Every structure is written in structure tokens, then in C-alpha cells.
Amino acid sequence: MPIANNPVTATPDKDVLSRHSTLPRRFNLLSYNIQVGVDTCRYREYVTKGWKHVLPHRERMVNLNRMSAMLAQFDMVSLQEVDAGSLRSGFVDITEYLAQRAGFPHWYRQINRNIGVIARHSNGFLSRFRPSRITHHKLPGGPGRGAMLFEFGTHREALLLCSAHLALGRRARAKQLDFLSELLENRPHVVLMGDLNASCEAQEIRRFIQTHDMSEPACDQPTFPSWRPIKKFDHILVSRKLQIIGTKVLDYPLSDHLPVSMELELPDSARDII
User: Fold this and answer.
1) Phi-psi bin for 167: left (phi > 0), alpha (psi -120 to 50), beta?
2) Strand 159-165 relative to strand 190-195: parallel, antiparallel, unpaired?
3) Which of 17, 26, 51, 168 measures 20 to 30 Å from 206, CA to CA?
4) For residues 132 and 136, what is the distance between their CA atoms, to the nearest angstrom?
5) For residue 119, what pLDDT is reported?
6) What confidence score (pLDDT) does residue 274 get?
7) Apex CA 223: angle with CA 220 and CA 226, to 5°?
């Protein structure tokens, strides 16, 4: 079930903290900007299909059902450009819907821009494992951007995973990454996943990677636009102390972004053995 949304921070109660899941040694991740379930196959469809971003339509649910079948193959999923239940989604909370269709027992959403009945712009996160602590953060550099932090363990070396959607502008992104750097400081096992709206070559991305001694092995695999990808906007950045088994961008063009996946192996020091 979701925690109550808060634009700054939200933390589960002590009962949740005492019943978090032990992560397996190996698990897989996926990051996907789903564009509110709207499929786009060419640039002109941003105009011809633009109405689908504000009004409900049957094809959206068909597309979400197709997405859920793919999401079911993963253990943790970061979702961007989700709707938390408004007119355009037929008042369906898309994060909850995908979680139930794909069989995820734990799901969380963060509403970053609430336009009431018109739209409820959100980030989403699906997990097969219960985190020990969750915090929501409003990002600086302009309205409507947020990040969720998930801790899987009760000690400093436990996995700390950040799911985020960053701004389009370089200056705003730099502020947001500096903000996240403070939250992730001195943690040895970190994952940052989401739509960062910049390539690995961007100065602010390179600085973040170097500061936290991270890697992004899929930098040479573009994710946008989905029908002819030339730009790398979607990332899974990981601490070098975490072993990457494999990573790839999936040829699954149900949005204007392609999803990026990764399989990780945790050292024993990052796992709570219960």
C-alpha cells in the first residue's frame, strides 16, 4: 500500500520499519518514463495525440496492460510521468494499477504537481521487497520535480535507492543533483535511477558520478525518442562497490522513452540478514 504523500518527506511507521524485507543477493531493476501511458511513434504525434495527455481514452489502458506484462519481469521499478488518478487517466491511479496488474506487493507514489481533477503528475515506484525507510523530497530548481529515497536495511552500508525525475534545464538539474548529493553523501551502496533529462556527457551528470564514485555502463545505449533513439536521458547509476551483472535498454516502445534495465549483486555488507 502507498504511504501518505508529502512534498518534503514521508516516513513509514515503526511497525513497517520492523518488518522490512531482506534483499536477495541478486535482483533486477527497471527505470521507465511511461508518458502517462501514451504511446508515441513520431514527433508529429506530440501534436496529433496531444489531447491524450488531458483526456481519457481506451488505448491508454490497453497500453498500460502491455506495460504491466513487461514490468512483471523485474524486482524494482522506477516510473516517471505517472498520473495519480485524474480525468486524463479515467481517475485510475496508474502506479497502483500497474502494481496490481504486475503482481507487486509494495508500491509508492509521489505527487509533484496536483492540478486537481485535470491531472496529478507523479513519480511511482514498484517493489517486491518492503523498504525499511522511505522519504519523499521536493527538488529545488522549479516546481513539479521530486525524488523518493528507499532504504533496504537498518545500517549505513544498506542499499540506498533514489528514484527521481529531473528538470529539463541544465541549471535546475545541477541544483537538483547537488541536493541529492547531500542526501546520498557517505553512503557506500547507492543507486540513482530515473529520467535525468541529460546524457552521461553532461557536466552535472559527470560531476555527480565522480563525486559518488558511481558507474553507468549503459551510457552508449540511447533511450529517447523511442522510435529512433539518439539521446540517453534514462539512467541507472550505481556505486562501484555494487556488482553489475548486466544492463541494457529494452526495445519496448510503448512510450516516447525506452526503459533501461539492470541486474545487480549486493555484497553481504549491504544486506540485512534476518
Assistant:
1) beta
2) parallel
3) 26
4) 14
5) 80
6) 45
7) 140
Place of cell 545500517: 155
Q: How far apart are CA 123 and CA 112, in angstroms?
A: 7
The three grid cell numbers given for residue 129, joined into one nine-digit string: 521487497
- pLDDT digits 0-9 by tens, 1-51: 333 333 344 444 333 444 577 899 999 999 999 998 888 877 766 776 766
Q: Give residue-wise pLDDT tens across range 201-225.
A: 999 999 999 999 999 999 999 999 9
DSSP 44-77: THHHHTGGGGTS--HHHHHHHHHHHHHHTT-SEE
Dist CA 166 CA 264 (whole Å): 24
Beta bridge partners of 122: 82, 111
SS3 assignment, position 28: strand
Q: Which amino acid is at 181?
A: S
Q: Output the nine-digit C-alpha cell for 59.
A: 488505448
In this structure, what C-alpha cell is assigned to residue 116?
486537481
Residues 122/82, Cβ–Cβ less than 8 Å: yes
Residue type at position 99: A
At 252 the three-state DSSP class reads coil
